[in-house]
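Write out this protein's structure.
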Amino acid sequence: MNFIQQLVKGETSDVAHQQFIRYSVGNYENKALVLISNGPTFKIQTSFEFATDLIKLLANNLDEELEVKGVIFSKTKLPDSIKKKGFFLIDVDETMTIDALQTIVNERKLDSYILLNIIPYLKVKQKLVKPGKSKPDGKYCTLSFKGNDKLRKIILDEFVFDAKQDFKKMAIDHTFVVDDIEIPKEFENDLEQARIHAKRTGSIKRTIDADGVKTTTTHKFNA
């Protein structure tokens, strides 16, 4: 379950918390973007926030060796990593088993940005998005395939969990409104740790455009 689905359903997780570390109090439009073409060739394009979710979906639902290329930006020093601009970088270029890909996702999902191309299914851009400085990019990730109705259904259930799935084209966008930031007392005198451990409260406005018909819902969150 991706962080948007968790928060819309009134749940939370460490993964959801990680998504909001970068935000201070304010309104943030055009976040967690999703574009879906639900035709003979199924295609879903998303913004930066869903890169790891798409990789995880493939890792959990395919049963073949995969050609994997890309980079992992980790906040934790890793073997053979190169430090650059505050991150430890690992270049990946290998044929990988599903188990190996699952291990990467499970071990690195909380401390890393996993930007991996899964050939021939998924393309992910290799440049980190800078909060407040980068333009919205709803095509940061592109996943496409023909057939495989099971995988199509799994992806639709993950991203279109609150709307009918018999559409041809769908666009989803979110506005994050952070109203308050609660800092644990033990981190009040440490700015970096305060930023990492603080809880954000506010609301998410979720807008779905299915074949030209728009619906908007608003959901409170704490993450």
